[in-house]
Design a protein that fits this description.
Order of helices and strands: HHHEEEEEHEEEHEHEEEHHHHHEHHEHH
CATH superfamily of the largest domain: ATPase, nucleotide binding domain
Bound molecules: zinc ion
Number of domains: 3
Largest sheet: 5 strands, mixed
């Protein structure tokens, strides 16, 4: 089986399990059910699909023969069950932040085999240089794992920017001017000769929470939830009925520049009172430094005098040690994030909000402040069963989610079925 057997297609509507049970996508449907719910036996799949037992058996045998499935090692007395052959190939997941790059080698279940990371400067460094690093890191990881490029199924990247998903490039990134419309996907596809998928980092993190993190149990992976990334920038990933909602142009969830009522803090986007400018990581660092210099916070003054850069972790330490200004800063940031999320809750009525990103280092009181603010400003019905909790994955979510982005695409119904047909042609 070769990675080149897969193509990027118009697959987003086909992964929802709602596809008609026509012959051409049946293998893909069965494979998707095993990806989502495996290990499973034939009876489980008959029950979930309503297909005839003989049909299911035939497709399972073919999926085994082509190497996409394997037998789970059965415990004594248990029936044979099948799962994804996670070692039949690999994918590369890339998480790009404004200041940090992480590249992970993942198996076909998006589990991280190995990873490397390095500090970068996306504002100053041109895309060619950063993407050159991505290539070098991926090759290094392949070498360390003893894998050849023919087993690479695809590369996924999360960028801290609005992304045109179908074109695979960033669009008007507010802080990375050199990246505007740079053809990231095609640049990397030339090097890797496999499919490359590029999405906004927050969407990618939402995929990781859906499959592996805090949202994994939400209504059998068909739930609707919001992932909010709180860091230097603030953004949200919207998952509706188990699928990422990107909007008309890929800008859905860009909540960092929604205005906070009555605030006039200037934002780098040119407006005033934007959530990011009031409550984001850079804003907090500036507020902490001001509090240190003005003497409002003895704790922060001490930290600044010892040469420490103001950070969420320092503010959290100050709050834990009883410094009132630190506590006020983190509660205020959480309240602003919650104010904007309340608007989304009223509009969208999700079952779950997962909070991720660097500001989670502010601790439980920050999450609690977000929660309080949402509850105060949302309608009772919208918050009746709403859960607000911290990400279960944090840093790992970026690379794992990028791997899942690839796997969802290359294992779309259509691609799996196409692979089956090619296999049949070869063996027939
Ligand atoms: Zn703004």
């Amino acid at each position: 089986m070769f990675a080149s057997d897969f193509e990027k297609g118009a697959t987003m509507n086909e992964t929802g399990g709602e596809a008609p049970a026509n012959v051409s996508t049946t293998a893909g449907r069965i494979f998707k059910i095993i990806r989502d719910h495996g290990p499973l036996n034939g009876t489980d799949i008959v029950r979930r699909t309503g297909l005839a037992k003989s049909t299911v058996s035939a497709y399972l045998e073919r999926l085994l023969a082509v190497g996409l499935l394997r037998d789970e090692i059965p415990s004594a007395g248990k029936r044979r069950r099948l799962k994804v052959a996670e070692s039949a190939g690999y994918v590369v997941g890339v998480a790009m932040g404004q200041s940090h790059l992480n590249v992970a080698l993942c198996d076909l279940e998006a589990e991280i085999i190995d990873s490397v990371g390095e500090s970068v400067d996306l504002v100053k460094d041109p895309p060619e240089k950063i993407l050159g690093l991505v290539i070098a890191f991926a090759r290094e990881l392949e070498k360390r794992a003893g894998l050849g490029p023919s087993a690479l199924f695809g590369v996924g990247i999360g960028l801290p920017s609005p992304v045109d998903y179908s074109e695979g490039f960033p669009v008007s990134p507010p802080v990375m001017p050199g990246w505007d419309r740079f053809p990231v996907a095609s640049f990397l596809a030339r090097e890797f000769t496999c499919p490359v998928f590029v999405d906004n980092d927050v969407n990618v993190m939402a995929l990781a929470e859906r499959d592996k993190g805090a949202a994994a149990g939400v209504a059998d992976r068909k739930g609707s939830f919001i992932l909010v990334k709180t860091g230097t920038g603030i953004g949200a990933g919207l998952v509706i009925d188990g699928e990422i909602y990107r909007g008309a142009k890929g800008a859905a969830g860009d909540i960092g520049h929604i205005g906070i009522d009555g605030d006039s803090t200037p934002c780098r986007c040119g407006n005033t009172g934007c959530l990011e400018a009031v409550a984001g990581g850079r804003a907090l660092a500036a507020l902490a430094e001001a509090a240190a210099r003005s003497g409002r916070s003895a704790f922060l003054a001490g930290e600044l005098a010892s040469g420490a850069a103001m950070s969420p972790a320092i503010i959290a330490r100050g709050a834990a040690s009883g410094d009132e200004e630190c506590l006020r800063l983190l509660i205020s940031s959480g309240a602003c994030v919650g104010e904007v999320l309340a608007k989304l809750v009223n509009f969208f009525n999700p079952t779950l909000i997962v909070v991720s990103g660097g500001l989670t280092r502010l601790g439980d009181r920050f999450i609690a402040s977000i929660r309080e603010s949402i509850y105060r400003r949302s309608t009772p019905l919208a918050t009746a069963d709403l859960i607000v909790k911290e990400s279960a994955l944090l840093e790992k979510g970026g690379t794992m989610g990028a791997a899942i982005l690839v796997l969802d695409e290359v294992f779309s119904h259509r691609n799996v079925s196409k692979l089956m047909r090619r296999f049949d042609d070869q063996s027939g």
